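Q: Please design a sequence for this.
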């Protein structure tokens, strides 16, 4: 099912905007500005009444009505209020499905003012009554203890993008309009934000949009000239240079300048309304031509909106320029409570908006202030696309068993399968079943990470083929497709976030080492989810953000040290406090476990799912049923691998987490078995299940943990990432002091797969030798020395021959059948460099 069509999209007006509406937009702007200044400064007496009865201080409007601690940002807010007013007018006149994304980082007062004026704020906060008491509560709560944040945060209706970290407004906007053909996404880009790397490259995302099947993004560059304390680059270049820059990016720039002279506000609003209509007419023409079959990529309109920073605030304070300077960025009157002079300036500033014409004697907003606002779900705060869980539909999942690797007949450890290719086959059918609500995003690595089976059912969306002299050289490219590849992790992450925040599902894949590029983006998304889960019940659950991290550390022997970093898991662990459960971390050891994990991820909500899985040929250890059973617990003993009898205590527990560590642990177990060492094999697929039960109420209980890892036996644990991560997770667990963890030790090079393991003491001989040291180093001294010598000999073999020792490459678990075929398949594909 496609996203719902709200109103009558892409409909032109028959004539100019009426003068009544022009006057109304000015009322909206004045009201929003008053509400914004009030939020930053006032804790009481919200309408500055001389007869106000102040329980906290003297009667009348005095410095006691100003907040003790002034927190917030004014500089970008009046321009945003101006744009909100005009976008509301556009929506009402055209009945246009539209959302508003606020890129400038500190426009929170404008967002909350907007939702108060369109009525949606009181729908989720009935305690903010439409009177003086409600207005006081609305002002006081802003950036106040126990109140609301200063950004356009999830607490505010209509927001899907919080500008706390700058650079992502366009990627979120473009993600929102994908498969959403009726949507107009107005994306306001701050001119400071425009200097960030992610934003600079996100202008290019228009090359992927199909104007027929997708909505339209209208970028508005909010050019107010200054960042916190410095001018902005785009404000200090000529109009011609700036226009050429955006034309080169594929846009048709419209320039609008206001606020730098004494032009009356009615004239300014009239000019902008006329401009906005011209821009919208152009957008309607783009949509009309697309519907008529035009195949060429359009130049999309954008607006360069140039106004003074802090527009309408006092022009000077203490003899220094304020409006139109960096001094307006945050709180222009920082001493409004402390000095009478600054308080009088604040009072005059608030009075300049003529609040007596905006609020009645009871403090209610006058009806003429909201006369021309959109109604129902067309309101910016009520559009269901900004509360995507309202639109979320379950995916039609494929029958997973069709893709199961047959371990029952092949035996545990059977074959040499590329696990992520199996995931790709499963996901291809998933796409085919859910054409308009599931997408794959990736930085030119979809095929590299073995998800290319999707190309059997869909193409990569690409609307930029006009100048291709050799179309036959392009593969799987078309204007419509469920895969988007842009060589920017930021864009892939941002597009997926925008897509799922508006009610859809998806997956993005990346090389494990370079997912760090979006550490902070994932952090911001987690914070959005944490706030939602904890305290915003009116926001409906959205689908999980699914991340496949492949081409991982243990098989980056071909690209080398620069491509070896498994540390993203440690960033995610910072999100595991407070039992919010917005992060899931999976290390499936084989293809069937990966299928079980995918089933869960594709049906999850309000979380980030990080799946670490290799793409190189590897054994399949468990059946699909066994995989599902293990996943339900998070960890399991592989009793078919353990060499202890029922009820017999092991000499040592061999724990493993991750596909390559599992394979090496299994090989080490065979080495130890030949010596008569009794081993229990425990595999962990969901990392957070072993986290301290005292820190995670969904983890294994201490009793369950002990049943797996024993109360007092040594545990040798082979972990995919850094060893300290495991100790960080289990420091409060029984028997923690007996854990000996192997993991990545920041050692690597361009070398062979075996040597990559050797360098980090993760190869089977290192694991087995360490097990003997733990048990009785003196008793097993000769065997330990033999294995250590072989490790060096195997390395020398690789140096001499350029490939790994047969004892490493030819090993297959003893229960597996078709051993020769498995070895052959491993050798045939083991040299794949991508």
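A: Design:
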């Amino acid at each position: 099912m496609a996203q719902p069509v709200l109103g009558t999209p892409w409909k032109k007006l028959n004539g100019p905007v009426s003068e009544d509406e022009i006057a109304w937009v000015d009322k909206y702007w004045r009201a929003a500005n008053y509400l914004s200044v009030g939020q930053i400064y006032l804790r009481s007496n919200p309408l500055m009444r001389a007869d106000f009865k102040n329980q906290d201080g003297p009667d009348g409007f005095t410095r006691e009505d100003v907040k003790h601690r002034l927190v917030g940002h004014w500089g970008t807010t009046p321009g945003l209020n101006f744009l909100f007013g005009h976008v509301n007018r556009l929506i009402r006149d055209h009945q246009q499905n539209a959302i508003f994304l606020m890129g400038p980082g500190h426009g929170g007062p404008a967002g909350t003012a907007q939702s108060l004026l369109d009525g949606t704020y009181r729908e989720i906060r009935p305690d903010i009554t439409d009177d003086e008491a409600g207005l006081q509560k609305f002002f006081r709560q802003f950036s106040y203890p126990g109140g609301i944040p200063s950004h356009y945060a999830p607490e505010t209706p209509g927001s899907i993008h919080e500008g706390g970290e700058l650079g992502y407004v366009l990627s979120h906007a473009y993600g929102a309009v994908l498969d959403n053909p009726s949507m107009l996404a107005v994306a306001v880009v701050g001119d400071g934000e425009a200097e960030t790397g992610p934003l600079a490259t996100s202008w290019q995302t228009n090359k992927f949009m199909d104007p027929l099947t997708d909505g339209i993004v209208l970028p508005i560059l909010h050019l107010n000239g200054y960042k916190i304390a410095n001018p902005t680059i785009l404000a200090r270049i000529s109009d011609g240079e700036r226009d050429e820059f955006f034309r080169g990016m594929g846009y048709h720039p419209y320039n609008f300048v206001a606020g730098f002279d004494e032009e009356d506000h009615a004239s300014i609003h009239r000019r902008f309304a006329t401009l906005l209509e011209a821009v919208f007419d152009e957008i309607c023409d783009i949509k009309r031509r697309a519907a008529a079959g035009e195949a060429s990529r359009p130049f999309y309109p954008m607006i360069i909106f140039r106004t003074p920073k802090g527009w309408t605030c006092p022009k000077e304070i203490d003899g220094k320029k304020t409006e139109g300077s960096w001094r307006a960025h945050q709180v222009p009157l920082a001493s409004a409570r402390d000095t009478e002079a600054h308080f009088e300036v604040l009072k005059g500033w608030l009075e300049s908006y003529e609040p007596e014409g905006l609020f009645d004697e009871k403090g209610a907003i006058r009806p003429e202030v909201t006369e021309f606002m959109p109604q129902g779900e067309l309101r910016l705060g009520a559009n269901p696309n900004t509360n995507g869980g309202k639109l979320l539909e379950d995916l039609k999942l494929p029958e997973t068993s069709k893709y199961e690797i047959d371990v029952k007949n092949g035996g545990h450890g059977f074959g040499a399968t590329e696990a992520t290719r199996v995931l790709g086959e499963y996901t291809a059918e998933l796409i085919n079943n859910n054409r308009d609500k599931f997408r794959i995003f990736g930085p030119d690595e979809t095929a590299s990470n073995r998800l290319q089976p999707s190309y059997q059912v869909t193409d990569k969306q690409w609307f930029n083929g006009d100048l291709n002299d050799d179309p036959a050289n392009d593969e799987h490219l078309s204007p419509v497709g469920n895969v988007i590849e842009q060589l920017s992790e930021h864009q892939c992450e941002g597009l997926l976030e925008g897509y799922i925040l508006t009610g859809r599902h998806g997956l993005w894949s990346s090389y494990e080492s370079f997912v760090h590029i979006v550490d902070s983006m994932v952090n911001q998304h987690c914070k959005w989810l944490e706030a939602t889960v904890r305290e915003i019940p009116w926001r409906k659950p959205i689908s999980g953000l699914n991340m496949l991290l492949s081409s991982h550390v243990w098989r980056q022997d071909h690209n080398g040290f620069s491509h070896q970093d498994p540390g993203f898991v440690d960033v995610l662990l910072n999100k595991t406090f407070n039992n919010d459960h917005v992060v899931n971390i999976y290390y499936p050891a084989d293809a069937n476990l990966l299928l079980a994990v995918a089933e869960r991820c594709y049906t999850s909500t309000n979380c980030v799912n990080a799946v670490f899985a290799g793409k190189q040929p590897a054994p399949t250890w468990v059946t699909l049923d066994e995989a599902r059973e293990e996943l339900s617990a998070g960890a399991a003993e592989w009793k078919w691998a353990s060499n202890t009898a029922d009820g017999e205590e092991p000499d040592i527990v061999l724990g493993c987490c991750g596909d390559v560590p599992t394979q090496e642990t299994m090989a080490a177990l065979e080495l130890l078995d030949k010596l008569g060492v009794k081993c229990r094999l425990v595999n962990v697929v969901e990392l957070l299940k072993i986290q301290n039960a005292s820190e995670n109420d969904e983890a294994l209980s201490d009793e369950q943990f002990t049943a797996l890892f024993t109360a007092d036996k040594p545990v040798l644990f082979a972990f995919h990432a850094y060893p300290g991560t495991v100790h960080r997770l289990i420091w409060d667990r029984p028997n923690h002091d007996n854990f000996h963890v192997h993991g990545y030790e920041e050692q690597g090079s361009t070398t062979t797969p075996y040597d990559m393991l050797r360098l980090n003491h993760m190869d089977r001989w290192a694991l087995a030798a360490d097990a003997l040291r733990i048990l009785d180093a003196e008793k097993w001294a000769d065997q330990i020395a033999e294995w250590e010598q072989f490790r060096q000999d195997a390395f020398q073999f690789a140096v001499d021959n350029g490939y790994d020792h047969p004892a490493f490459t030819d090993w297959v678990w003893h229960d597996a059948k078709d051993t020769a075929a498995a070895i052959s398949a491993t050798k045939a594909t083991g040299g794949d460099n991508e």
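Q: Thanks. Anything notable?
A: The domain at 19-383 is CATH 3.40.50.970 (Rossmann fold). The chain has 25 helices and 22 strands.
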